[in-house]
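Hi C.,

You asked whether I'd gotten around to modeling the 1141-residue construct. I have! Everything is below, sequence then structure, no commentary in between.
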Amino acid sequence: DAYGSCTVCQTGYSGANCSLYLCPGDGTCSGHGTCEAMGPHAGTCLCQVGYFGETCECSDGNSGNPATCTPCPAGRWGAPACTNYCPGTQLQGQVSLGDSCNIAGSAAPPGFCNSWTGACVCNRTASGIFRYTGKYCQLKCPVEIPIGTTEEVPCAGHGQCQQTSSTQNAVDFARLAVCVCQPGYAGVACQYACPGVTADGATNLCYGHGRCDVNLYDTSGNLLYLGGGGCTCNHGWAGLGCDVACPSGTLDSSSGAICAGHGTCIIAGSNAGSCECDSTRWDAAQGCKDCANGYYGDQCQYNCTDATGAVCGGHGFCDFGIRGTGMCMCSGGWGGSMCTEGCPKDANGLVCGGPTRGNCTSTATCGCRRTCREVSDVTSTVRVDPVYLPVEHVPAGQCLDYDGGYYGTTCGVYCDPWSFVQTLGISTTSAAGQPPFVHAMCDATGNFTCLRDVVRGYWDGPTCDVCLVGWRGDICNKECLCNGHGGCGRYDGICSCFRDDTNGYWDGVECSRCLAGYGPVGSCVEPQGGITRDEDLQSADSLFREFVSSGASVNDPAYQALYQAGRPLVISSLDPDYSGVQLLHYLCLGQTTPDGCINGDLNQGFINSAVVFPQSFTNAQPVLPSATAPFAAWRDFLWFGVTARPHDYICRMYRDAPAFNGAILNHIPEGDMCGSDPTVSHWCCQPLNATGTSQGYTSLVAGTLSEHTAFSFQSTITLTYQNRIFYAAQAFVGGNLTAVIIPVWLGETGANFTVEPGIPIIGMEVVTGMSLSRDRLRVRGTNALGRNVNVNIPGAAIGPIAVQSRRRRRMQTLAFTATTTDEYEQLIRLGGSPDVVCQYTETVLGVTTTYGTYACTFVEERIVTQVYNGAVHEWSYRFYHWAKPGQNLILVATYENEFDATTATTATKMAAMRAVVFEHPNADVTAFEVAPRNLTAANLAATPPNQEGSAVFAVNAADPSVVYKLRLTDLAVTGYQALTTAGSTPEIVNGITLDHAQRVAYLGLSTSVATTIQILLFSVSSMTPQYVDVEGDVLVNVTGDEFYDPAPNNVLCKVGNYNATVGTYISPTTLQCRTPTGIVPKDSCVGEYLEVALMAQPRFTQNQKQVIVTPKIQLNTVSPTFAKSDTATEIALGGVGFVDN
């Protein structure tokens, strides 16, 4: 059988392996019985009914039986002597052990005693199945009663009852094998048939797709396992008989994973053979091969359900499935992307006025039906019945004269351009065999307007008979070649450029450039004002070699000096007595005498950064105490980083009044540095040669000291960073070039300073920016692939740990890992729109989603901190390049107190941000600085909180720079100026430093001669009144920005070339001036420029805003400029000098 046991032995053999017994005689049992192969009767003949004897050679009633056929009397065996007692009878005077198998007098004994062997032979059915078992046939075999009968069938007719030698009166048939079942049957009484079993055998059990749970026996026929007849299905099959195939494959193929890999097959029960999907996103009815209703996408990762889970709001059908679009097809009267918006109804409750007027569109608005009367005869205009077309306008070319139909929110307005044509008096009669070409149409509200489409032309004017601005040609269907910045002649095409505040001020044959005095490039809406270029600071000395600028510069108002970093260090005088004078200092690192560095390596001593700590910064930083002689501390020095070999250096220079009347060229060797008295030995440099073994590197790479720095001093703002400057360099960490932040601790009570162990930033190769933000140092950079990365280093990682010594502080030795995630970038929005601005990707549960269309790249950041009523407030200003065509720069201002709060949500973070876009070609930000003014309660009450003051930045790295000035309160452009090309060298700004007190910006240029441009940040934008009397002494209110209150009588006003008069400071946006007497008026309305100056050394603005001196009655305006000839019309005249007579 299937378990390797022999079930039928050949004639004459018996035993479990058919090799142990041979029945008496020839083993054939005389042809009247069978030779038992197993059990207690193995090797004996079981005779047919009516036969008996050892070999069944005897038969009942046969007088010819041999003498040996005489049976023994009941209870005896051993014929013919019959001297032995049968089992269960009294045996030689002993007590009976049980009922004999042939109980005398029993009407239906369970068996009989074999007269020749003495064994009990139990009774059998006609088919040969034993009814009893046991030594005395005392145990009844398990039976099954077929349905509809009362007959007890031993072993259900599908097995043989085992003949045992048990003497028990009762046994547990589930533990003792009694019925040995045929293959394909199981159970105590072989009552369970395996699915698929047939009358001729068990070759198709479980229909060939599983394993049947049958009884298991050992080689002696003993029960090892009692089966239940059920099927255990192979993978992919289900049902009681494993006859149901599980769904497999995909929508395109039946081969593949079960349930498409998105679920499991139900094996049993009423749903056997069906799939149970892993998620409700998949459709079980389709074997998890496709999305359930309401889901779409290749992984069913998107849904088209509303907040309540209803598909398409319960008012439509979703195009669902892995090939679906997710678009909702709304039922009548509903619209919107999720069919949750009801379409407008008219006063009668009809959606869109009913089906004859319009229908509901997918946007929940009415698509009103339009009409078109076509020309059907070439010789005349035929007005045919309206043809309704469910589109907003009839497609171009279908309607040759006019269109019309229903309009309005609910399609309740009917418009017929024909009546409008007749109202205008335009002929509706054919001319020269052609129909009249009427240029009227209906607008979206159902009012009449001029026709505008590419086939029939773009028309304008009271009677729609002139071309719309920007179009030309006989039928006004050809676009003007004016770059969208002006109109042109209908027939000659000559451009007339726009020149207004809305469209910009344009010039050129094709209106392709800004009108002189306007910008920026691309919009031309701003006059080149708001910024005044003052005199340049430039050395006339020719003794030093070519100046190499680093772009770093710093203003020192305490000593009226400007430090410009590079090689050499250039100190320019801001003192009027030494205007334009410069001092030049070469640092000869590695040299002990001046002679050793005069002709040294140009790369030795290149200063790439400069820091001066503020002595006082009103309402922006805490006031620092001034040093008193002979004390000198970190705030008394200029600090800078220097690139050199074999080490880079950190240096300081003692600040005192520069001797601008002395020698201008100096060479300072390292041998003359770091004396005990810094007031005598002004210079001191320390090499960056300290190892960082505990930080993961052995030494810094020479020549990698960056120009990017951040600094802090003892204050309530940055306690954990107090008295430190942070520099950036590089080292090899794990074989990779890695950015390292170098903290420099500044002495609190002397001129000493300590270069502390660096902090590696794993994953960042080059630092591109640093800024200090309250409790952390924010570092920006790029990785080995050139991608932007960032990291925030907490103050606890930089500040001193608990163990301190008296002379220096120990630092924690930590490393940080940079990340590419920019939360600011992901939250930028423009103009209140919810649309994502900067493209980014996000992966959740293995599903990657891309948001936004155009990528943003971080450029620059400034952190500005101010204190108001003892509380610290912080803003960040961040520039990004934006890849959207025509949109090049985004500036984001963020109120960090709200953005960085521990309770901040995405919504509150977005509410803390403001963003503006600048359109500018070649928009590389080369320099950027922020100049805040006093913080007020109104600033903090704004949404989001803002600052007073200005920001200045320069763009363009190849062409001459363009300098912008912004107002911090709303990020609006308040000043703009394009620099020029000096000879063949474009003026490119690579550094900006600000004089906050006098509202002056110093622009360092990337030129071979140390050159700094001074620009005034205060400016004039308008004045009231604009017209003033020739007699003079007229009070004029001057409006502008960045005004400040100088020393008394330092507000000067100048009209044209006349003598300046004293003005009055009113507010940061208002001054008052008086016009001088003796002005000679001009004959025309061209006025005189009114400029202002606020400094002790007068520097007047050059904003070119005019006042007009009026000597007589003068007309300025006439309104209206058109009037009908047959109608009396009142005309208003505006001007100056009118009197009531």
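If it helps when you're writing up: The mean pLDDT is 79.

Thanks,
B.
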